[in-house]
């Protein structure tokens, strides 16, 4: 135990993960110039610490923390500064009124609520403005449900939109409101077409086997697909505070991956092979249910358990959690301001740190798996 509270273990990646998280929070709320200055300052501090240790002025043990914190801060701030600069020079940042854009659908359309039941919101990557190709940058597009709700992720399209400034707090370049219907360019990637066919098949089977209200509820409970959910049922779930039941979360991954791991282990596979199979299942499930923030959070935390299983060592779970947090924040900095991501990391850390101790504590007091109580 460390200080009588934390169990002994490998905590080396906790500091880098905390540094990346803190710098991401600051960078998302700051201007491009300030983020660039932070990246340069952190890089200079890291370089001075390395040079001091290299010349023998101080020991590596003395400056190791400074090198780690400065290096991770420089990398994080530099990566976000690059994205902020790309957003600042993007044509949509200086556009007003209507323009034609070319973009790629990145997620399923989400209904805007009862007040705007006929409109949906969808995340897109804009790679063309007014017929000119540009570097892809994320944007939020709203449009009519009938035109946009059926488009699959990965679908390339062009449409006339009205441009508005982004809300802030993220890396989106603009808010777009569709003026025309989308003109499709090509087809979605094969894996997205397969995922769409599976989701559509589940809707058809549900419609044949269940009543009108339950038919739309089953795809939501299994895959988080609420596109066919009855408006009255949707509103009832919202009023009852149960909308999380029709959103993909850790429980879905636990059921799917747990079943796959159990079958593979019963077949006699090694922990490493079991972890590989579990990872493939996680990736396939993410594609099937769409890589929304809640899905990515659950997938990252599931990967933590699989990495620990691959090494057959409980002590590897904490480094795996730190690595997953670092990779997730560098890839998608907006996770730093998502309360759900913080709760997922804290919950997983709690399981990693204290589940074994709690199990032993209960066992020492007579609570066993086969106990009737």
UniProtKB/TrEMBL annotation:
It comes from the Bacteria. Residues 221-362 form the ComEC/Rec2-related protein domain. It is a multi-pass membrane protein. Keywords: Cell membrane, Membrane, Transmembrane, Transmembrane helix. GO terms for cellular component: plasma membrane. PANTHER family: BETA-LACTAMASE DOMAIN PROTEIN, DNA INTERNALIZATION/COMPETENCE PROTEIN COMEC/REC2. This is ComE operon protein 3. It comes from Gordonia insulae.
């Amino acid at each position: 135990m460390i200080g009588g509270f934390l169990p002994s273990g490998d905590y080396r990646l906790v500091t880098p993960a905390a540094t990346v998280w803190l710098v991401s929070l600051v960078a998302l709320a700051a201007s491009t110039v300030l983020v660039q200055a932070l990246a340069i300052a952190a890089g200079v501090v890291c370089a001075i610490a390395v040079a001091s240790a290299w010349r023998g002025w101080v020991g590596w043990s003395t400056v190791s923390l400074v090198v780690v914190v400065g290096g991770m801060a420089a990398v994080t701030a530099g990566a976000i500064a690059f994205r902020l600069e790309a957003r600042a020079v993007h044509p949509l940042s200086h556009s007003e009124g209507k323009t034609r854009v070319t973009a790629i659908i990145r997620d399923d359309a989400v209904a805007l609520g009862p007040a705007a039941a006929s409109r949906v919101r969808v995340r897109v990557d804009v790679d063309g403005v007014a017929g000119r190709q540009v570097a892809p940058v994320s944007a939020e597009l709203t449009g009519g449900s009938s035109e946009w709700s059926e488009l699959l992720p990965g679908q390339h399209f062009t449409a006339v939109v009205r441009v508005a400034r982004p809300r802030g707090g993220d890396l989106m370049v603009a808010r777009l409101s569709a003026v025309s219907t989308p003109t499709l360019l090509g087809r979605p990637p094969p894996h997205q077409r397969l995922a769409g066919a599976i989701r559509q098949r589940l809707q058809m089977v549900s419609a044949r086997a269940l009543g009108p209200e339950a038919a739309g509820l089953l795809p939501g409970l299994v895959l988080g697909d609420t596109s066919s959910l009855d408006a009255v049922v949707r509103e009832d779930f919202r009023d009852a505070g149960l909308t999380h039941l029709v959103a993909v979360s850790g429980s879905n991954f636990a059921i799917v991956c747990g079943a796959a791991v159990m079958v593979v282990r019963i077949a006699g596979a090694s922990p490493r092979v079991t972890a590989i199979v579990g990872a493939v299942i996680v990736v396939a499930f993410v594609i099937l249910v769409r890589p929304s923030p809640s899905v990515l959070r659950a997938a990252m935390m599931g990967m933590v358990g699989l990495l620990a299983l691959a090494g057959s060592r409980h002590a590897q779970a904490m480094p795996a959690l730190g690595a997953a947090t670092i990779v997730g924040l560098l890839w998608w900095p907006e996770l730093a301001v998502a309360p759900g991501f913080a709760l997922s990391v804290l919950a997983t850390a709690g399981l990693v740190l204290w589940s074994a101790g709690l199990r032993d504590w209960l066992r020492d007091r007579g609570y066993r798996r086969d106990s009737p109580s």
